[in-house]
Amino acid sequence: xxxxxxxxxxxxxxxxxxxxxxxxxxxxxxxxxxxxxxxxxxxxxxxxxxxxxxxxxxxxxxxxxxxxxxxxxxxxxxxxxxxxxxxxxxxxxxxxxxxxxxxxxxxxxxxxxxxxxxxxxxxxxxxxxxxxxxxxxxxxxxxxxxxxxxxxxxxxxxxxxxxxxxxxxxxxxxxxxxxxxxxxxxxxxxxxxxxxxxxxxxxxxxxxxxxxxxxxxxxxxxxxxxxxxxxxxxxxxxxxxxxxxxxxxxxxxxxxxxxxxxxxxxxxxxxxxxxxxxxxxxxxxxxxxxxxxxxxxxxxxxxxxxxxxxxxxxxxxxxxxxxx
Length: 324
Hints:
- Pfam families: Pyr_redox_3.
- Keywords: Oxidoreductase.
- One of its GO terms (molecular function) is monooxygenase activity.
- This protein has 324 residues and is of the alpha/beta class.
- The protein is 23% helix and 24% strand.
- It has 2 domains: 7-134 and 253-323, FAD/NAD(P)-binding domain, CATH 3.50.50.60; 137-249, FAD/NAD(P)-binding domain (3-Layer(bba) Sandwich), CATH 3.50.50.60.
- It has helices at 17-28, 43-46, 77-90, 170-181, 203-211, 257-263, 306-309, 311-323; strands spanning 7-13, 33-36, 95-96, 101-107, 110-115, 119-127, 134-135, 148-149, 162-166, 185-189, 216-218, 222-226, 230-235, 238-243, 246-249, 253-254, 289-291.
- Strands 1, 2, 3, 4, 5, 6 and 17 form a 7-stranded mixed sheet that branches. A 5-stranded parallel sheet has the order 8-15-9-10-11, with helices on one face.
- The protein is elongated, with a radius of gyration of 21 Å.
């Protein structure tokens, strides 16, 4: 990027798949743009478990009409990282990595975008920041211990250890099965009375491991306290104290509401915390500021995925072009 250029027609906040899709659409429309990403390229995908397989087929993860060819119908994390990297670089998308946006403030005709490294001005701002950066905390004593993580990466680390996995959905199922297969003694704590949204090829595997007692599962259970060598579970039958070396808390994530509120986007006051936007144009209550991707769902993080929010890019650019 030419560092002397600081004024753009469009600035896109977030360099994930939807941010890249917005960049492709902006580029196709012939508008000047800059993508700002606080981490590495497709930072959220990079932080997914190393061995993760997507639920979606590869064609549903395509952006900008660029084919996504994978070895199997459902691509893996490494394949997705490779695909989005090739899309970004082959199209020479104007993107600045490891540059966090700190604020967006009105600036006469447009907005001043203040990052950790520079200041820019833009006529239009697209926010495609996802929801993977801030974990939903359990708010229990001991949650800040080094043994507790809200991000699961590689099962080998837990070989031979006593591991508590908290959660009932895909991430928890993958963590429980993979660490057990690497020799961990795994306990699963599920808040409700049954397992939740789990990939159809994974759920029977987990249920079989639970039924044969290879993985101990506690349903209708929450975490009461985490200690250095044990965890206290609050079960339907009373408190249970189990020995423990590590806690993998797959309790979910949430958008950065503080950032959205800071720049002036209205957020509903109910538990869903939906940000305000026009579903036809994706424009927020702020003129010329748009939302794209999973950030639109607030706490309802199962509404939007890559496959059904990639269309946001074209909606937004159509609106911007009509204004120009």
